[in-house]
Amino acid sequence: MDLIKKHLPILIAAILGGIIGAIVMRNLIPPPAPQSGGGFTFKGGEAQPIDCKTTEEKMTIAGSSLAGILKDGQEVKVIKGYYNCKDANRGDVVVYGYAGGTQPLAKVVKAIPNDKLELKKSGAGWNILVNGAPAKTSGGTPYNISEQGFRLLSLYIKDYGGVVPGNAHLIMGDEIGGSLDSTRFGLVDKSDFIGKVAR
Questions:
Q1: Helix (H, G, I), strand (E, B), or coil: what is residue 79?
Q2: Is the Cβ–Cβ distance between 153 and 171 less than 8 Å?
């Protein structure tokens, strides 16, 4: 009994500290975001409806990284906001808001969340395997990326056990060796997709 009395203030302080800490942490850390396709986002602890409205805008392709799919100077229709309430599919041509540039990029989705991602040595470069099969250009040739692209994508494979994590996507140009795409800036989050190119 004396032992309990002796340590009672410390026990009370520990319990109160835990309760206060839990309250503070609850207010500092927002609740997890919903899984894609849920239709709601959370802000301040309350569900907020996601804006599913889309708009159409004409854009002009600049550059040749998608030459087998879209030509330099070609005008395309972009459905902006398309991915706010829809998942991206393999083969979608997306407009991506690249933080490192002044212009958005048009790229092809090659891997989506939960796909298995691997890299396999091939000649002087590396093939990207998605669910065991080589990712290919529109002409049917497997991508053969450089050591730099290999090192970058290897980090994701190592960190996520070879599985594309939720909301992340592998997006590529149509050039065999890669272009300004996931081989240069890594996997990208769906929230950075400006829209879908309608074809």
A1: strand
A2: no
Sign, Cα dihedral of 191, 52, 91, 198:
negative
Q: Whose CA is closest to 169, among 105, 73, 123, 74?
A: 105
The distance in angstroms from the start CA to the end CA of the chain is 79
Contact 58, 78 (CB under 8 A): yes
For residue range 90-144, what is the model confidence (pLDDT) as tens digits? 999 999 998 877 889 999 999 999 999 999 999 999 999 999 999 999 999 999 9
Q: Are the C-beta atoms of residues 123 and 144 closer than 8 Å to each other?
A: yes
**Edge-to-edge strand ranges of the sheet holding 117-122:** 117-122, 125-130, 133-134
Rg of the chain on CA atoms, in Å: 23
- pTM as predicted: 0.75
Q: Two tokens at 135?
A: 């990712």
- Residue 178's CB: how many other CB atoms inside 10 A? 23
Amino acid at 26: R
CA distances from 35 to 40, 42, 167 (A): 9, 11, 8
117 DSSP β-pair partners: 130
